[in-house]
Amino acid sequence: MTQLSIEGFIEESIQRWAEHGFHHTVFIQMREAFGTERAIRTLVREPDFKGGLAKLATIGLVDRSLEAAVLKFPGLFSPADVAHARDRIDVIPKGG
To answer: Is residue 95 part of a domain?
Structure first.
């Protein structure tokens, strides 16, 4: 059941991103190759991969980021992944 929940969240997120002209090609390709959770885990752990989150912040969709997915479904990820996702979101400027 949890798997369906994260899948639904990500499908809806991809649609919302596209409505704002954002196509997270790297994530979509990784998701197709490795599955949703592994793709999220890999990208959230990557220290230099913040482009998606930064773009989503500019269009007001941080709540639909990969980092937000980790925080929404913490039982699917390690405590380190959850902490890393939270740290990334915490540095996003508020109200801007």
So the answer is: no
Q: Is residue 96 part of a domain?
A: no
The tokens describing 87, both together, are 């740290």
Assess contact for 69 and 53: CB atoms under 8 A: no
Residue 96's pLDDT is what? 46
The half-sphere exposure of 26 on its side-chain side, counting CA atoms within 13 A, is 11
Provide the 3-class DSSP secondary structure of residue 59.
coil
Q: Which residue range(s) make up the domain with 53? A: 2-90
- pTM, to two decimals: 0.89
Radius of gyration of the chain (CA): 12
Q: Is the pLDDT confidence value at 2 over 60?
A: no
